[in-house]
């Protein structure tokens, strides 16, 4: 590890200690200041490979990712409550501090999706939509204006908050559906979707994330697309990294690592058409991709 990496890791460790000592991760001046420092520390492009760091730093990173996820959920809930107090909540989305990032991320994901899908999808599932489903909102408002979105979240309160944001919008209230269910309990319903988005906060460690991906691989319709968020370089201190080798049952079509304030990397993959047994003994099942 070179001096630049050592400085980065030391800074991240210091910020982790500050974050882990906070009494609460709910939005406040102190919480916002520390997380802003963390994001600005990890944002510049950096070739660091977090998988090669020592065990102690790896353990710190795992805990930090969980704390970031918890803080992000509380931030979204806080602003969803504020937005829900307006007569037309969707007219005030710009009060959310990272709204411009979602505009850029959603445009990026739409452009990547358009490169690999020949027509506009009629039904999309978003897994882990949360109390403030900004990706669904932005895509439905700006890019996929006739598509139906089925948003899944395990938290009934999150869904209740999200539903309240659409009640005054005659168009999107008819195209946004919310399901309070663990996606691991969904089987046949997953075959209805041409595209499935898996949120960054679904599965807060690598093992859990891969379980969700494996479940989707088993039950999504062949040829359907999976959109995931990953991380690269120093940004992997904020979010989990998903490698193409983790996506069993999918053909990885594209991986894009932004270099701007959009933190998440974007991965798009296609569910293989069908399993087929190898003609050679001992090789086990192989998968035939759609070309």
From TrEMBL:
It comes from Quercus lobata (Valley oak). It comes from the Eukaryota. Belongs to the nicotianamine synthase (NAS)-like family. One of its GO terms (molecular function) is nicotianamine synthase activity. This is Nicotianamine synthase. Keywords: S-adenosyl-L-methionine, Transferase. It is an enzyme of class 2 (transferase). Coiled coil: none annotated. Synthesizes nicotianamine, a polyamine which serves as a sensor for the physiological iron status within the plant, and/or might be involved in the transport of iron. GO terms for biological process: nicotianamine biosynthetic process.
């Amino acid at each position: 590890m070179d001096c630049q990496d050592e400085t980065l890791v030391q800074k991240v460790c210091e910020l982790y200690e500050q974050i882990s000592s906070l009494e609460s991760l709910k939005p406040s001046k102190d919480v916002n200041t520390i997380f802003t420092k963390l994001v600005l520390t990890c944002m510049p492009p950096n070739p660091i490979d977090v998988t090669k760091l020592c065990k102690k730093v790896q353990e710190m990173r795992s805990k930090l990712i969980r704390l970031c996820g918890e803080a992000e959920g509380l931030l979204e809930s806080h602003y969803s409550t504020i937005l829900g107090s307006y007569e037309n909540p969707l007219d005030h989305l710009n009060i959310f501090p990272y709204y411009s990032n979602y505009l850029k991320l959603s445009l990026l994901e739409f452009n990547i999706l358009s490169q690999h899908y020949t027509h506009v999808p009629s039904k999309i599932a978003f897994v882990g939509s949360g109390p403030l489903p900004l990706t669904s909102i932005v895509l439905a408002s700006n890019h996929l204006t006739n598509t139906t979105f089925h948003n899944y979240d395990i938290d009934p309160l999150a869904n209740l908050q999200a539903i309240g944001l659409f009640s005054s919008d005659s168009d999107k209230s008819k195209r946004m559906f919310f399901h309070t269910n663990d996606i691991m309990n969904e089987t046949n319903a997953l075959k209805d979707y041409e595209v499935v988005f898996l949120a960054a906060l679904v599965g807060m460690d690598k093992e859990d994330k891969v379980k969700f991906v494996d479940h989707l691989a088993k039950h999504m319709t062949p040829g359907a697309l999976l959109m995931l968020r990953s991380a690269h370089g120093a940004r992997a201190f904020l979010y989990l990294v998903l490698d193409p080798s983790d996506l069993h049952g999918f053909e990885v079509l594209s991986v894009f690592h932004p270099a701007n304030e959009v933190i998440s990397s974007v991965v798009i993959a296609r569910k293989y058409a069908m399993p087929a047994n190898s003609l050679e003994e001992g090789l086990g099942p192989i998968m035939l991709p759609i070309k």
